Amino acid sequence: MIAADMSATTSAGIWHARRGPVALRKGDRWIRPWSGVADEPIVDGQHLLISTHAWWMNTHHLLRDRRGVPEQLPYVSLVEHRLDCWVPTDPANDWLLDRRTTGRRIWLRGSEELARAAGLDTGHGGPVEGRFRAPYGLFYAERDGDPPVPRAGGWQQPDQQFFTGLPRTADQMLQRLQHDSPDRPWSGPFAYACDALRTGRVPAELRSVIYQALLLLDDVELTGPTTDVDGRPCLALQHRTSRRISELLIDPDNGHFAGHRNTINDDSGPAPDGTVSGSSSVITRVVDHLGDIPHDLATLRRDGAPVLVD
Q1: Which of 109, 113, 124, 144 is deepest in the core (most CB within 10 A)?
Q2: Closest Cα partner for 81 from 116, 31, 126?
Q3: DSSP state of 244
Q4: Cβ contact 276:265 at 8 Å
Q5: pTM, full prediction
Q6: Where are the domains positioned within the chain?
């Protein structure tokens, strides 16, 4: 744990005791965050493991309950998920996804008793659970009747060709993010960057450029120290809108995407202002074999939960 190393800030930004300032505030043009940090080496035959512990919002709407009485409000809860994804060095080889829910649920609106009384099956409507193997990470292609052939890379499913074509300067990276999300000029660049980063596959040099590009946005700032849902120390890129605060969490040692947190920012949503509506902790490792989980990760306690507002 490195909480003690992140206990101070300076007028220039966040301070890391082992390396000095790891990032400058937006007005100081620029010292690159985590510049010179290299990813853990990976060789042919090894796999990248992206391990995610998350609480995601689940909303159920009923027009009428079983008695025919109109329902005015949805049932809203946070559901605990665990996902482990192994990515081979050659994307044409098999990937492995282990996806499951734990049974833990936090009700934000309604309750288990009220949902059952209304005839609501809270077990339906979630993601497909299980272990899935497929080349190119196309885990549901066979189920959907699609051929297992590679698709063009993009922010949601990047590949090496996509990474090669991305800019290497912050200004140009922001222009690319804005160009690729024209229908969402305020939230699109931040959301698209998060999509790519959460795959765990963005190389270190590009992560640094993406973080700097996001900091060029007026409504994004670097904050910290903070923690992820399991209590690990992180920095955060915070994107604030009129309805939501989105935080992209960053491992301060290597710049890896470390998770996310979304917080409701007004009272017009499905839960009160200040409610965490989604949160995750993401750890990335290199392993030798498909399905391997390092001992220290397998024994790491990861059972945190979002703190609810009163």
Answers
A1: 109
A2: 126
A3: E
A4: no
A5: 0.84
A6: 3-298
Looking at the predicted structure, is the pLDDT value of residue 139 above 80? Answer: yes
Query: CB-based burial of residue 237 (10 Å sphere; 0-12 exposed, 13-18 middle, 19+ buried)?
Result: buried
Q: What is the largest CA-CA distance in the chain?
A: 64
Task: Tell me what percent of the residues of the chain surpass a pLDDT of 90.
Answer: 59
Phi, psi of 85 (to 5 degrees): -130, 125
Contact 228, 237 (CB under 8 A): no
pLDDT above 70 covers what percent of the chain? 82
Omega of the bond leading into 225 within 30 degrees of 0 (cis): yes
Which among 198, 194, 196, 60 has a CA at the least distance from the CA of 126?
60
Lowest mean per-residue pLDDT among 14-28, 85-99, 105-119? 14-28
Q: What is the per-residue pLDDT for 148?
A: 79
Task: Let me know if 157 is exposed, middle or buried by CB neighbors in 10 A (0-12, 13-18, 19+).
Answer: middle
Give the pLDDT score at 223: 87
- Please tell me the distance from the alpha carbon of residue 259 to that of residue 250, in angstroms, as a whole number: 7
The contacts of residue 1 (CB under 8 Å, 6+ apart) are 232, 233
Residue 119 above 70 pLDDT? yes
Across 124-143, b (16+ Cβ under 10 Å) vs e yields: eeeeeeeebebbbbbbebee
Rounded CA separation 100/282 (Å): 15
